């Protein structure tokens, strides 16, 4: 009898745990998909605005409302590898005339961005693989718009900075250490959800 009760108790607890995990996993997935997520960037293509290993927050609302503008920094799926994300600046929207040449090219060439596409380039033009290499990027590949960047973690404060658009003022603010813990938990939860959904 004792063994049976123990087994039933263990079974109920297990089912309850799985149920809560799935429930919170679905909530987290919806939050990542429709609200935003923290993304760790790598590579030199967006220097000096975003450097290697910088953490940024990518919000999804602008993308769903089709409010991506020229000058915005976006996270998008790579046209070459759908498993890889790229971080670039929007240089042109559909119908815009953009320069397709590199900064060192003597003769400049131009093209028009086709309908339903955007033209993406890195801020570090001499060390960036972008639309100059793979052409206009479909709007559907945009995952979100970068609105915050984690600048540095100090002893008492976590400092954020908004990535600058051209000719826009720099803005930054500080958050208390509580949010450092929250962000760490956010990364952990995101990885757990991705493992569950994969």
Automatic annotation (TrEMBL):
GO cellular component: mitochondrial inner membrane peptidase complex
InterPro entries, alphabetized: LexA/Signal_pep-like_sf, Mito_IMP1_subunit, Pept_S26A_signal_pept_1, Peptidase_S26
GO MF annotation terms: serine-type endopeptidase activity
Localization of this protein: Mitochondrion inner membrane
Pfam families given in the database record: Peptidase_S26
EC number(s) from the headed UniProt entry: 3.4.21.-
Alphabetical UniProt keywords: Hydrolase, Membrane, Mitochondrion, Mitochondrion inner membrane, Protease
Signal peptide region: none
Record bears the keyword Protease: yes
GO term, biological process aspect, one: protein processing involved in protein targeting to mitochondrion
Keyword Transmembrane helix: no
CDD domains: S26_SPase_I
Domain Peptidase S26: 19-101, 107-149
Superkingdom, taxonomy of origin: Eukaryota
First-level EC class: hydrolase
Residue positions of the active site: 45, 88
Cross-referenced NCBIfam families: sigpep_I_bact
Assembly and oligomerization: Heterodimer of 2 subunits, IMMPL1 and IMMPL2.
Similarity comment: family membership: Belongs to the peptidase S26 family. IMP1 subfamily.
PANTHER family: MITOCHONDRIAL INNER MEMBRANE PROTEASE SUBUNIT 1, PROTEASE FAMILY S26 MITOCHONDRIAL INNER MEMBRANE PROTEASE-RELATED
Protein name: Mitochondrial inner membrane protease subunit
Natural source organism: Cyprinus carpio carpio
């Amino acid at each position: 009898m004792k063994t049976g009760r123990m087994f039933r108790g263990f079974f109920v607890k297990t089912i309850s745990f799985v149920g809560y995990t799935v429930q919170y996993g679905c909530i987290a997935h919806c939050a990542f998909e429709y609200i935003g997520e923290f993304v760790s960037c790598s590579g030199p293509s967006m220097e000096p605005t975003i450097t290697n290993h910088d953490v940024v927050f990518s919000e999804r609302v602008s993308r769903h409302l089709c409010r991506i503008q020229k000058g915005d920094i976006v996270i998008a799926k790579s046209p070459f590898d759908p498993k890889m994300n790229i971080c670039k600046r929007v240089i042109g929207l559909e119908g815009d005339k953009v320069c397709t040449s590199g900064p060192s090219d003597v003769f400049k060439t131009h093209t028009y961005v086709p309908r339903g596409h955007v033209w993406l380039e890195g801020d570090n033009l001499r060390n960036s693989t972008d639309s100059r290499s793979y052409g206009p990027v479909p709007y559907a590949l945009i995952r979100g718009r970068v609105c915050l960047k984690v600048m540095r973690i100090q002893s008492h404060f976590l400092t954020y900075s908004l990535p600058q658009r051209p000719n826009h003022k720099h803005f930054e603010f500080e958050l208390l250490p509580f949010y450092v813990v929250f962000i760490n938990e956010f990364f952990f939860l995101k990885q757990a959800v991705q493992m569950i959904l994969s």
